[in-house]
Design a protein that fits this description.
Elements lengths: L1 E2 L4 E2 L2 E4 L5 E4 L10 H7 L13 E7 L4 H4 L5 E10 L9 E10 L7 E4 L4 E4 L4 E3 L2 H7 L7 E5 L11 E5 L1 E3 L3 E2 L5 E2 L9 E9 L11 E5 L6 E3 L1 H11 L2 E3 L4 E3 L2 H10 L2 E7 L7 E6 L5 E3 L8 E4 L1 E3 L7 E2 L1 H4 L2 E6 L4 E7 L10 E3 L18 E7 L1 H10 L1 H6 L11 H8 L25 E5 L51 E4 L17 E2 L8
Parallel strand pairs: 3-8, 4-7, 9-32, 17-26, 18-25, 30-31
Antiparallel strand pairs: 1-2, 1-6, 4-8, 5-6, 6-7, 9-10, 11-12, 11-27, 12-30, 13-29, 14-28, 15-28, 16-17, 16-21, 18-26, 19-20, 20-24, 21-22, 23-24, 27-28, 32-33
């Protein structure tokens, strides 16, 4: 990613629940003895005074909600900036006046690229600011409010790139499933799935005593599961909880034993606690993660499982997304989860366009003839490094208490959304949404390979000498919509907003956040 004018380059994490861009502020490396290594490991530092397009707003709490329940937190220096996808010379889209936040906290070690379409509203300005995804669609730079993502596989042999696609998906990166999920009514937890069972070939008994609902969140490195499930993992994998590190550390002897047994964990998930489901298999290599310098002096191996105190903390983070491919469609408010595939470099990408609600063909979508599918492929070597970097905050910060807040304002905002007559997408095999009459650029950074899909194609290659960015890439969009909960469509995609109240901008890490400082509510245009 590039931010500012002249551009500054960054490696960012895709953030499924975030609606803005985060970059690391120079003060984020103040506590490190080696400033150069810190800057490199944190994906680059943003110097606002070097950019002519920076427009400062002020200091606020980070606009997080679900992550705060897990003890994450911090402040951001907010402002407007110009953002360009990809590296210099890739000729990828650039958009101005985007909300960004400069972060210093090590709760989130790298910056983040927000994928959520909701707008941000700074209440003293009394107007909303459109998210990056919505801006790209509004300016016809992507065809739809859709994205697809898998984190890649660093421990796979050979390592496999992560994948993020905006406006479509890469069908070469997942095993197709016709199961579709409606997005949750609470849009702060839109990617909510029912975990029906968790099993492993190490034992004949289930690791999950009863079904739960869990939130898929790429900002979080670990999987947060119930205490009794963690206890079942401890028994099956011979794990020991380290109360100081707040992690399951894995020593060499245990690691070698698990390698020899080659266990697999299978998550069976669905739209509800019983009924239709899809299975996501996670081999042991998905769990053998390391933290290393500059976060710790020696390499530290750990198992990415965390103990959840209550059901508000049940989360499937980036560790899960190594093996899962998620396609999110905000045009129809549904998503799908598939088993990820790990193709070698000889397999061409198969990028499929996903149409907006108004359709792609027949001239029904003005401007889409210059629309763009943006596919960003990032080196997998950075993916697990990013997952591992999450250990920093766990090792050196005590996890704050979780809190419950009234969700009535969020639920009310959801009620303002318009219910469409048809909110379903056909199964992936039956409906490949293409736009044969419209020339669409397939912009790909890394392999430089694209498959022509009935449209004019341009390919942009990422030079091998460029630094590899963090995880990104994506697959197909949602198959069949679940009938029991119809997705809703907002009257305007840039109207739902996240309100940041400036009255008390920053809060101390030990304080309990309150709604007079940060109101996490998205409202329709009529609110």
């Amino acid at each position: 990613m590039q931010v500012g004018t002249p551009s500054q380059q960054f490696r960012l994490l895709p953030a499924t629940g975030l609606d803005m861009t985060w970059v690391v502020h120079p003060e984020g490396c103040d506590t490190f003895s080696d400033q150069v290594s810190c800057a490199k490991s944190r994906g680059g530092l943003y110097f606002s005074h070097d950019s002519s397009t920076w427009n400062e707003i002020g200091l606020y709490e980070l606009s997080i909600y679900e992550e705060a329940m897990l003890g994450y937190g911090g402040n951001g220096s907010y402002g407007f900036e110009t953002i360009t996808l990809g590296w210099p010379g890739n000729n990828l889209p650039s958009v101005g006046k985007q909300v960004i936040a400069g972060i210093t906290t090590t709760s989130f070690y790298l910056g983040a690229l927000g994928l959520n379409p909701w707008s941000v509203n700074f209440t003293e300005l009394d107007n909303s600011h459109t998210s990056l995804l919505s801006t790209l669609k509004n300016e016809s730079k992507i065809p739809s409010l859709t994205w697809a993502y898998t984190a890649g596989a660093y421990n796979y042999h050979p390592p496999v790139f992560g994948s993020l696609t905006l406006g479509g998906f890469d069908s070469s990166r997942f095993v197709s499933s016709n199961l579709n999920f409606s997005m949750n009514e609470d849009i702060s937890r839109d990617l909510l799935v029912a975990v029906q069972s968790i099993t492993t070939n190490l034992t004949g008994s289930s690791l999950l005593s009863s079904p739960i609902y869990a939130y898929i969140d790429s900002l979080v490195p670990h999987m947060w599961l119930p205490l009794d499930t963690c206890a079942a993992f401890e028994t099956a994998f011979n794990l020991t909880w380290n109360s100081t590190a707040q992690l399951y550390l894995v020593n060499d002897s245990l690691h070698q034993m698990l390698l020899s047994r080659n266990p697999t964990v299978t998550f069976t998930i669905g739209p509800s606690m019983s009924g239709e489901s899809v299975s996501i298999e996670m081999p042991y290599w998905s769990f053998m993660l390391n933290a290393s310098s500059p976060l710790v002096n020696d390499v530290l191996r750990y198992f990415p499982l965390k103990r959840a105190d209550n059901d508000t903390q049940y989360t499937l983070g980036r560790a899960f997304l190594q093996n899962a491919y998620v396609i999110a469609n905000y045009e129809f408010f549904n998503f799908s989860v598939h088993q990820a595939k790990y193709p070698d470099s000889s397999v061409p990408q198969q990028i499929i366009t996903l149409c907006p609600r108004e359709g792609c063909g027949g001239g029904s979508a003005p401007g889409l003839n210059i629309g763009t599918i943006v596919g960003i492929v990032l080196a997998a070597v950075a993916v697990v490094a990013i997952i591992s970097l999450g250990i920093w905050w766990c090792l050196f910060r005590n996890r704050g208490p979780a809190w419950n807040e009234d969700h009535s304002d969020i639920q009310q905002g959801r009620q303002d959304l318009l219910l469409p007559n048809k909110a379903e997408l056909g199964g992936i095999d039956q409906a490949r949404h293409e736009a044969p009459e419209n020339p669409v650029k397939l912009i790909e950074l890394a392999t430089g390979r694209a498959r022509e899909i009935g449209m004019e194609t341009e390919v942009y290659e990422l030079p091998a000498s460029e630094p590899a960015a963090s995880e990104l890439h994506t697959p197909d969009i949602t198959p069949a919509t679940t009938p029991h909960l119809a997705p809703r469509i907002p009257a305007r995609f840039d109207s739902p907003s996240l309100f940041l109240d400036p009255t008390r901008p920053a809060w101390n890490r030990q304080e309990r956040p309150s709604t007079d400082r940060l109101t996490l509510a998205r409202h329709g245009s009529g609110s």
